[in-house]
Amino acid sequence: MKKICLISLIIVSLFASVCAFADNAGNPPDYYVESNGTITMRSEMGQLGDMGIMSDGDMRISPYGAITRGEMARIITQLDGYDKLEVFNMTGEKRSCDFIDVSSKNPYFSSINYVSGSGIMNGYGNSLFLPDKDITYNEAVKTIITVLGYEPKAIQKGGYPQGYLTVANELGLILYPYAQDHNINGQEMCDIIHKALDVPLMKQNGFGAVESYIIMDGKNGVELQTLRTIREAK
């Protein structure tokens, strides 16, 4: 009797695995099956790379290496679904940069234009962006929270850096909102971005004297909007 139950359990498990694989048809799988039948989960960095995030010809992101502000700008444009920013340059919309330390030959020129023009990332004063400076953990969290639309909530909770860290913790992006600031590495950034992809965006829906915001969580008639759904729609 025990053998029959065990065999049944194995069959059910295999069926569930097949169904899960079928559900991923057409999308980069979260796992792959080796020749001996072992199921190995793909790394978060591998999954993001399949989506064109944190991976291109200019960036060399490693799990334990630092990330520069220029690289962070490129990551943000990838998150927003603007992987090919040559179009941004060719339209003539922005042929020069507001920062004296970012020339048109900089590989992140277009990305820096995009994030600065969108108010996602700011300079350091004196018309400097410091594209080669390593970005810190607090700065990276602030940038992601801004992309997700939760900056007003972060400001209400105290602003930079603690307000942003608190909101990031509430959204499940980070575990320790009081961690000591440091230069963020590739694995830490990957972990935050991987979680951020499916966080419902916060958008302003009331203007004027009294501003209001709505969470695009797909509930009560509200459309579900995340960085992932926006990327898939482009």
The coarse silhouette is globular
Distance separating the two termini: 54 Å
Radius of gyration: 21 Å
How many strand units?
Answer: 4
* Oligomerization: single chain
Mean pLDDT, nearest integer?
A: 81
Structural class: mainly alpha
Largest sheet: 2 strands, antiparallel
What brief labels describe this structure?
234 residues; 42% helix; two-stranded antiparallel sheet; mainly alpha; globular; 4 strands; disordered N terminus
Description:
With about 230 residues, the chain is mainly alpha-helical. The chain has a domain at about 70-215. Helices cover about 40% and strands about 5% of the residues. It has 10 helices and 4 strands, in the order αββααααααααββα. The chain has a two-stranded antiparallel ribbon with strand order 1-2. Strands 3-4 form a two-stranded antiparallel ribbon. Helix 6 (about 135-150) crosses helix 8 (about 160-170) and helix 6 runs parallel beside helix 9. The N and C termini lie far apart (about 55 Å). Residues about 1-35 have low confidence and may be disordered.
